[in-house]
Amino acid sequence: MTLTNSRSRPDLLGVLGGMGPLATADFLTKLISRTPARVDTEHIPLVVSSEPNIPVRALGLANDDPSSPLAAMLDRRDFLVSAGAQAIAMPCNTAHYWYAELSAGLDIPFIHIVDAVIAELEAAGLSGATIGLMGTRATVEGRLYEDPILERGFGCLVADADLTASHVVPGIALVKENRIPEAKEMMRHAVERLLDNGAEKVVLGCTELPVGLDMNDPWVAERCIDPTAALASACVDWAMAVRQRGG
Amino acid sequence: MTLTNSRSRPDLLGVLGGMGPLATADFLTKLISRTPARVDTEHIPLVVSSEPNIPVRALGLANDDPSSPLAAMLDRRDFLVSAGAQAIAMPCNTAHYWYAELSAGLDIPFIHIVDAVIAELEAAGLSGATIGLMGTRATVEGRLYEDPILERGFGCLVADADLTASHVVPGIALVKENRIPEAKEMMRHAVERLLDNGAEKVVLGCTELPVGLDMNDPWVAERCIDPTAALASACVDWAMAVRQRGG
What we know:
By secondary structure, the first copy, chain A, is α/β, with parallel strands linked by helices. Chain A is built from 11 helices and 8 strands.
């Protein structure tokens, strides 16, 4: 058996990670567990940049502001391309606010996390349902999920500013500190509030949320949609399609 | 805040992964959870190559044999160096059989998984104890752990060829197929056998073993040493030392 240099592998996936680091590891675990593989060689080759020093993903900054994360994200994207990536995935919801800039001029697919979630909602037969949404302030205020969800004919119930500030944002911070049990309690309260207010399913629109809530908990799995897992499934679909085309 | 390009970061860790893929994700999770960080920016920047197409790590092949994994591992090591890695870790026990070749001529540290395990055994006050060992045939027959463990004054009780063939190797294959509950049962039997025969602790000398056995299970945590976690701790120690030196 000879090794095809992964730098020229047609199914080499680039992962723009580190936002945050544990979310990146969670994405890789979900990607691997969703890959239909019986032996190592059937898994998807990966190049991962986990750069935890990308500036905070906050809105309202000019792209050339030194506090903007865009330059750092573009640098990491270009690194993945130079490493031979044939598609890019970014396991961070908020960072998709800069998707237009990150995918501009790129001649390989940049797999969008919101597209992956909407495909999963539709596959689950939820068309027309009211979808709850929680995420960072930037994800909520930037309408990252809300606009595409409404456009596809779903209803959308977004965590309000109070709930975001009191439970969602502090829960995310606890995951970044590795304080998972405390994070879980905080986040579960926010999920319950959205369900009480009429959501049929809740999109966990920040990669720290499924880490904190633990998607293996049946209570969570029944009520929530995990964008990290949806992105992983979309990446597996991409790799399998490339292989089927004989790539 | 400005981003230091991670390609020149003094604490950028390169991970030579994919042997197997799930073990690499497990290593990243353990690395992150052992890092004393409260926010993203305190985590360790990483470049990961997860190349599942590296030839099977079997002994007895000449290094220039096309079936040898060495050329592919050197290719991935060189990729990590070119990406700016300032140290390299390889979350695969068996692959350390080629450690001399992989670290030759390298001017950055290549953190050895067996050194990390021995440090952990000594820190746990087990000096002089009889240590059980299970792993792939190559790890056992190549005496990867046995020689250094004996040299440091421990006893060593190695899973024999029958137990390796009947329970250890099939358990590892089940993890690579994502069949974790079946793997766990298979592996637990092997741990019990080593304990019954006099081992005080069992080194899980293949990265698939702690994934299958689940180190969060108190029964396992009490009886087993996880080389993936030990390697993660050694990498955290490296990064913290680099930062303390003002790197």
